[in-house]
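Hi support team,

I'm filing this because I wasn't sure whether my run with adenosine-5'-monophosphate-propyl ester finished correctly. The job status page said complete, but I'd like someone to confirm that the output block is well-formed before I use it downstream. Pasting the exact inputs I used:
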Amino acid sequence: MKKDVEVYLKEKRIFSPSKELVENSNVKKWMDKQNIKDYDALLKKSQDIEWFWGEVAKDLISIGDYEKVLDWKLPYAKWFTGAKYNIVQDALDRHKDSDKIAYIFEGEPGEVENTTYKQLYGEVCKLANALKELGVKKGERVGIYLPMIVQLPVAMLACAKIGAIHSVVFSGFSAKAFQDRMIDCEAKVVITCDSFYRNGKTVPLKKQTDEALEKVDCVEKVIVYQRTKEEVSWNKNKDLWWHDFVEKQEMECETEKTDANDTLFFLYTSGTTGKPKGIIHAHAGYALGISLTLKWVFDLKENDVWWCAADIGWITGHSYIVYAPLILGVTSLMYEGAPVCPQPDRWWELIAKHKVSVLYTSPTAIRLFTRYGEEYPQKHDLSSLRLLGSVGEPINPEAWMWYYKYIGNEKCQIMDTWWQTETGSHVIAPLPITDLKPGSATKPLPGFSAAIFNEKGKEVENGGGNLVLLKPWPGMLRGIYKEPERYQKTYWDQFKNVYSAGDIARQDKDGYFWIQGRSDDVLSVAGHRVGNSEIESALVSHPSVAEAAVIGKPHPIKGESITAYVIVKKGIKLNDALKEELRNHVAEEIGKIVKPQEVLFVSDLPKTRSGKIMRRIIKAKALGEEVGDLSTLANPEAVEEIGNAK
Ligand code: PRX
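And here is everything the job wrote out:
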């Protein structure tokens, strides 16, 4: 039995919202309409989840007639059963005549292009017709490998419009990672581009796509958008230029009448064991979960300029750059490039130039900016900002304070939002009416129900343990593609009848949640959640390597940096050149963000008797901490070697 989580952090500061923020907030207006007097009453009343979600849906999505709000057959939830609903109705079709700007796009080289809702509609219809011409049918998969350009939301919406399922792969992932995902989801068509700008250079995405698809049979056609006009190799039987094939299509396309619970997309997320999981999300519940949370947590209004500075390749971008802002009809900023290119003040320049009013980013980015110092934001007029947000990792109280002081000028509340690829939308997060404590994501949102369970499955009211969700919620994942048993085992087997998030957290005496990280071995590098096994598999795929284990060491900017312990095959010479080769190999196999900071050679790795590598012990030893009980190990002597590894 694992010990319960201990509590170390003691943060006492409280930041209350201004009266003006509270009075004008979207959530307060809804509470007034419902005669709900305060935050506590709202949280309580919303625990009647069928009433709550049915009621809020009326203002947010055009759900039409349905049988039941919720059909809950553990571990599967269906929302708005019997309804016909396609998210595109609300994200696109209802704004089709609007001249409001949907996206302000700024490329890394500096060009700015606005896309109105009307233009977006036309672009989506053209691509949807192109996909139809290629024979893509409802329920078939389209792989999308695009950077942060407007064609990425266009591609996602085009798939959704015809009822196809999109599977977006982060453009920073390598050809190999893209290949694995395309094979798993059995994509029929892929949408990519020639190359794109990142950090003053170009990234050859078409080349990577070619490499990835060389031996993939399911992909019949590749649509290529021309972003940089760099030369690319061309397979005329397979490749189609967007500017030829898509441009000539009609600007009207009927939206497929999908069932409310039909699949909208798969998004692969790294697991602790084995291959990435294809997380499934469906149309209606997801649409409601993300639109309510964006409207209430970030309080978006008609004139806001919203900037979610994540990448669309992750769930944050799917939910809060693409679908939710479009459902709410707001204007979003989209920036293609690296945060500190050409200077560390690029973001602050963007905020001032485009008058961004709400900024949503990650603790990693904030830590990066703190390293460069406050003189960079201070060079720019950031007075357009009225709210800030954070997601992806626990935000350290001091990073929170820096964000509050130098970016928000001590007048913007910081919305620290806890959620996951699996949850689809925010789950634990403040509202504009919530008092904040730096480092806490505060309380579960209305309509959500979270708790901390100890290892025995007993609720812990004031202390640490496993974060669980007690009731289903609309944006809840609908399973793992092709792996129902893994779905059950990963989320529903640890404790009876509740969802295990796999995170550890504590709840304080006011009921505030403090997230303490993953309970397993997933690494968090520069805001990205990466499974250790993927990195280890990449190492082992090198001809010199027999076995490998990776751990994360705390890193002031990236969150964690990766240390790899490697056992080489017999006869292989150990030297620095090989270390460098292995680091580069990982970068090529799965992407630069997971390139290990250090590679150390060992002759053995601590393992359980059943042969499982004990990363927790490796990490403790590497950090000079207490390693604890070694009696479960098959080879305790291997621990000593970790400490001396070179
Ligand atoms: O460990 C939690 C951490 O990120 C995990 C989810 O990662 P992913 O599926 O990639 O989605 C990231 C964007 C939603 C969680 O299990 N996490 C996310 N947000 C927070 C967080 N940890 C602490 N505080 C947060 N606000």
